[in-house]
Structure to design on (838 residues):
């Protein structure tokens, strides 16, 4: 059997907005873990919101048994946020005082903000509340990194780099990269590898 | 992933989506035929089977609707091959007549119907529980609780179907179909069955002579289910309470018992075979306890059928609790581990130990804006609704719009300026408009509009169009043709030149079809805003049935094949809030690509979101939005 986990099941939520590629990211991440012998379950909530609605994946990793597809309230150990307000929404429901947050601070403006009916809160206020709710908040400018590397869509892989770098995650850099190499080829694979490495090494604590 | 579902690696474990596990189960069963109409959360099954059809030597089709799909499977079954039919919960209502007929006639080659239910209606308009259809049709029903079972049950369902000569239903829920988990592969068959000629006296006839035969098959299924390893009990010999559960309820129940340290007090009877119920097995556990909590998705289906078993056995004395009348669990929406845990705490009068949480007083919490569903950046439906709303406002009585099912359903919300008055089921809009349009006989004068997408048009609007034409109702039927079944993931339909297996297909022209029914038809581009507004206004002035096709390819689909154009705002030309446009591009137009830069007080394009359609450039009154490079 695979190495035991400090916390079993390890509960990870990957959240954002439809179209950001977080479903694919969680699937690649979880595939690498299954390859390693863990039992991993993903529950995906997206519904009709391939188009601009909130999207989240619950990823549950265990060395013992297959867990159900939904993480109970306040039981997320790690939250990977592709979008700031969605991250706070999830942290309020699923976070606790030991949760770790990894966050891209680039906003994706909801319709109510575009139309002027609501305003988008200052990022610093979101980070402050996240810091009060959870153990740590780490900022990764994943979309910026992806844009600088020629593909704005690759923010998802950048954040998987940071996720893999977290101490509690039972996956090495090389193991994730080997999964990337199985799925992608040529320049797309190279670009994904580059942003993954940048995400892996770009942790900064708030 | 195609390579995983076709891997000849028995014993190897992969992370599979529930839909992939089901497709794999069908391949391990040696199917030669698969048919479906797309519907979330079931669509990936046939997409996968279509992709591997050539390699795996099977035929797969996206049928025009679910009835076509099921009846096509029945035809294939006559030749003794195995066939798989897939649909979402609404599909079981569409195929009601065919399914009940099939149950009466029985099948020849194994025929399995996989149904994906959507508790909480994440990607549906309702959370119909399709298990009622299995009971109503008197056919066997299986419910997978894990991703592994999703694969294994399909295989078993084919064996049972051939043993009974009866269609078998496998019912999953969103959390299985759109979830992922470890699945260990089985063998793929080396030889596939060849179709057998239908003999002169072979029959497949649905007639009431076979009613008793059908019921006898159900009895045989019950006998088989009594022994099935898909049903099992875990827990103490004499439990204070037994949870009887199916599907994802099993995961939630197990987790709740572990969290509450109840595994020595409460047992779980997990049922995978849920119609007909394995009565002897259930009775053997009902004898051991005095309380039963039923944990199941959506309706109290197991609960009510258990109540019937209990009623027939006066020696059983149990308190039966579940979702019925919300005695122990909510009556609507999907379950989760927290709901099951809370219910157990209440029933057993115990407390759970909550996680360590910081409570922030409401006045110190950041106010989060809601995130409404919206059309994608560059979506032609945004333009269609904008034009329609604008044109209807010019009419003396503002008009009435009947919606239908697809991405454009979101037009009923903010994304479409709340543009729909009615929304029912697939193909419902055109018929409602036909009826309301007839009210002009009694003096009604409002303009009546029905909307339908291209895939919905082929699915269920054709009889409605014939009806509206024959009765010449006063209405405008608008087909929003974006050349895709976009909502469910761009599956082809009869208007698309590649079929589900990637073969070239002879397309059916929507305008020729409409003309063939005897209607005159106009085609317009929703991105030509002024011209199309004029066309619609002109059509409103005419009486009788009018048909308009608003044609523009789905932006998400188009962005895959075209070089993206750079769209940007020239800050020297954007006049900001002084313009008088009221921030038209972001506030009114509402494309997620059009954002407002608070720092400069001017419009901006979000380059991550923008797909480069450039329609906003034609709408900006200051001409400040510019387009560069690429192709349209």
């Amino acid at each position: 059997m695979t190495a035991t986990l400090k916390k079993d099941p390890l509960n990870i939520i990957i959240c954002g907005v439809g179209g950001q590629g977080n479903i694919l990211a969680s699937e690649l991440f979880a595939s690498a873990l299954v390859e390693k012998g863990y039992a991993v379950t993903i529950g995906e909530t997206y519904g009709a919101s391939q188009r601009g609605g909130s999207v989240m994946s619950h990823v549950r990793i265990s060395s013992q048994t297959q867990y159900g597809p939904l993480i109970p309230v306040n039981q997320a150990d790690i939250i990977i946020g592709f979008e700031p307000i969605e991250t706070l929404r999830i942290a309020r429901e699923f976070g606790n005082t030991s949760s770790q947050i990894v966050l891209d601070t680039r906003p994706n403006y909801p319709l109510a903000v575009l139309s002027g009916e609501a305003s988008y809160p200052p990022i610093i206020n979101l980070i402050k509340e996240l810091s009060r709710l959870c153990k740590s908040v780490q900022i990764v400018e994943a979309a910026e990194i992806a844009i600088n590397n020629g593909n704005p869509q690759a923010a998802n892989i950048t954040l998987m780099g940071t996720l893999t770098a977290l101490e509690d995650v039972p996956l090495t850099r090389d193991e994730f990269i080997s999964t990337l190499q199985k799925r992608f080829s040529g320049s797309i694979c190279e670009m994904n590898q580059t942003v993954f490495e940048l995400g892996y090494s770009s942790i900064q604590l708030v | 992933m195609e390579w995983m579902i076709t891997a000849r690696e028995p014993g190897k474990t992969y992370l599979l989506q529930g839909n992939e596990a089901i497709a794999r189960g069908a391949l391990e069963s040696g199917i030669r035929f698969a048919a479906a109409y797309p519907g979330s959360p079931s669509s990936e099954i046939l997409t996968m089977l279509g992709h591997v059809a050539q390699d795996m030597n099977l035929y797969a089709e996206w049928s025009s609707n679910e009835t076509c799909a099921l009846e096509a499977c029945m035809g294939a079954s006559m030749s003794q091959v195995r066939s798989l039919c897939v649909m979402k919960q609404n599909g079981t209502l569409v195929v009601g007549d065919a399914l009940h007929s099939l149950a009466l006639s029985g099948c020849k080659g194994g025929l399995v119907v996989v149904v994906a239910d959507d508790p909480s209606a994440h990607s549906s308009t309702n959370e119909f529980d399709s298990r009622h259809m299995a009971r109503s049709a008197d056919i066997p029903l299986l419910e997978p609780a894990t991703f592994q079972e999703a694969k294994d049950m399909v295989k078993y369902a084919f064996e049972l179907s051939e043993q009974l000569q009866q269609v078998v239903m496998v019912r999953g829920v969103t959390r299985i179909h759109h979830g992922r988990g470890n699945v260990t592969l089985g063998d793929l068959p080396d030889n596939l069955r060849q179709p057998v000629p239908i003999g002169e006296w072979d029959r497949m006839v649905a007639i009431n002579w076979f009613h008793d035969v059908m019921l006898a098959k159900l009895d045989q299924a019950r006998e088989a289910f009594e022994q099935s390893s898909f049903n099992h009990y875990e827990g103490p010999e004499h439990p204070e309470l037994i949870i009887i559960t199916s599907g994802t309820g099993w995961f939630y129940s197990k987790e709740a018992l572990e969290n509450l340290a109840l595994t020595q007090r409460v047992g779980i009877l997990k049922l995978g075979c849920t119609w007909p119920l394995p009565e002897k097995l259930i009775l053997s556990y009902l004898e051991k306890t005095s309380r039963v909590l039923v944990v199941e998705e959506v309706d109290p289906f197991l609960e009510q059928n258990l109540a019937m078993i209990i009623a027939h056995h006066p020696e059983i004395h149990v308190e039966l609790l579940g979702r019925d009348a919300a005695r122990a669990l909510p009556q609507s929406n999907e379950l989760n581990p927290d709901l099951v845990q809370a219910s157990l705490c209440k029933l057993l009068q115990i407390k759970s130990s909550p996680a360590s949480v910081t409570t922030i007083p409401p006045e110190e919490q950041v106010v989060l804006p809601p995130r409404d569903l919206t059309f994608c950046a560059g979506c032609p439906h945004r333009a269609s609704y904008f034009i329609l709303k604008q044109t209807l406002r010019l009419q003396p009585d503002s008009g009435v719009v009947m919606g239908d099912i697809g991405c454009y359903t979101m037009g009923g919300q903010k994304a479409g300026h709340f543009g729909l008055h009615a929304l029912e089921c697939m193909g419902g809009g055109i018929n409602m408009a036909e009826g309301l349009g007839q009210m002009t006989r009694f003096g009604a004068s409002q303009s009546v509009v029905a909307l339908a997408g291209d895939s919905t048009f082929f699915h269920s609007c054709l009889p409605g169009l014939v009806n509206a034409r024959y009765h010449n109702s006063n209405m405008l039927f608008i087909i929003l043709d974006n050349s895709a079944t976009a909502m469910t993931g761009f599956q082809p339909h009869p208007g698309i030149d590649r079929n589900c297996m990637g073969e070239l297909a002879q397309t059916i022209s929507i305008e020729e079809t409409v003309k063939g029914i005897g209607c005159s038809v106009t085609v317009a581009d929703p991105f030509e805003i002024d011209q199309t507004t004029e066309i619609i206004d002109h059509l409103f002035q005419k009486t009788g049935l009018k048909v308009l096709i608003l044609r523009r390819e789905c932006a998400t689909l188009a962005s895959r094949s075209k070089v993206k154009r750079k769209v940007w705002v020239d800050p020297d030309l954007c006049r900001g809030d002084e313009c008088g446009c009221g921030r038209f591009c972001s506030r009114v137009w509402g494309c997620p690509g059009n954002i407002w830069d608070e720092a400069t007080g001017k419009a901006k394009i979000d380059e991550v979101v923008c797909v480069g359609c450039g329609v906003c450039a034609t709408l900006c009154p200051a001409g400040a939005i510019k387009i560069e490079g690429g192709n349209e």
User: Anything to note?
Assistant: Chain B touches chain A through 67 residues (CB under 8 Å). The first strand of chain B starts at residue 13 and ends at 17. Chain B has a mean pLDDT of 95. Chain B has 22 helices and 23 strands.
